[in-house]
Design brief:
- It is elongated, with a radius of gyration of 21 Å.
- Helix 1 packs across helix 6, helix 4 runs antiparallel to helix 6 (137-174) and helix 4 (85-123) crosses helix 7 (180-190).
- The protein is mainly α.
- Helices cover 86% and strands 0% of the residues.
- It has helices at 2-33, 39-51, 54-76, 85-123, 126-132, 137-174, 180-190, 193-219, 224-254.
- The protein has one domain (38-254).
């Protein structure tokens, strides 16, 4: 009976957390679509999420494309299929590696920062002070981050796609002695709009998830500095897991075999 009680207790805690997250999400989204919106806060978050995340996302995409070209050549050379490297690189980067790796990098950088910032405001009662001054914390703190995350991550992923494909091009042409014009021709020949669109849709969902997890765990943090640290860890872990889950779901929607 102790095992059943522990299982039931855990399940009830899970349902309670899921319900709190659902209500937080609904409340946050409602404030994203209702005026007034704090334009200065939105622009500030866009710069922080988009511009300042570009170096780490660009480097990740560049070396991912380069390694992908090397690994593809190592495998395909066994079957005399080296000509498929350009196709593999562009499809892998635009469909999967671009949005997923960019999402994970941004989750580690931005998700943690959001949780730490909002969590610190919570434990130091700055959020309560905002409410006292008749400023809605959801509209001032949460909504700008959700809007910025949802809009800026697709732009980051689009740039990452270009950089990743360029990395594969550099390795293939200057390391593996591929013909440059043939490589570019094969890249464009097999790339379809749905490949890029699916990656951008993933990026928008990932951006929303990262911002939501950072804001949620920061807003719910308790217990001083230790609580803020725990909220930061939970935000990054939850965002990373949800990125992988939604990656599978969206891939199934776009590229279902049935």
């Amino acid at each position: 009976m102790d095992f059943l009680a522990a299982t039931g207790r855990t399940f009830l805690i899970f349902l309670e957390a899921t319900g709190q997250l659902a209500m937080f999400t609904g409340r946050s989204v409602s404030h994203c679509v209702r005026p007034p919106l704090y334009a200065r806060q939105i622009i500030r978050q866009m710069i922080d999420i988009g511009y300042y995340s570009l170096p780490v996302v660009g480097l990740t995409a560049l070396f991912t494309g380069m390694v992908l070209a090397l690994q593809s050549y190592s495998g395909f050379s066994r079957f005399q299929a080296e000509g498929a490297i350009a196709t593999v690189v562009v499809l892998s980067v635009t469909r999967e590696l671009g949005p997923v790796l960019a999402g994970l990098m941004v989750a580690g950088r931005i998700g943690a920062a959001m949780a730490a910032e909002i969590g610190t405001m919570r434990v130091t009662e700055q959020i309560d002070a905002l409410s006292t001054l008749s400023t809605n914390p959801f509209k001032y703190l949460v909504a700008p981050r959700l809007i910025a995350g949802t809009t800026m991550l697709p732009l980051l992923v689009l740039i990452a796609d270009v950089i990743g494909v360029f990395g594969g091009f550099l390795v293939s042409v200057y390391r593996l002695d591929f013909n440059a014009s043939s490589y570019i021709t094969r890249t464009w020949q097999f790339l379809e709009p749905v490949d890029v669109i699916s990656g951008l849709v993933k990026a928008a969902v990932f951006g929303f998830v990262i911002s939501l997890m950072g804001c949620y765990f920061g807003y719910k943090s308790r217990g001083g500095a230790q609580g803020v640290g725990q909220a930061t860890t939970n935000a990054v872990v939850a965002a990373s897991i949800l990125i992988l889950v939604f990656n599978y779901l969206i891939t199934g929607m776009f590229f279902s075999t049935k």
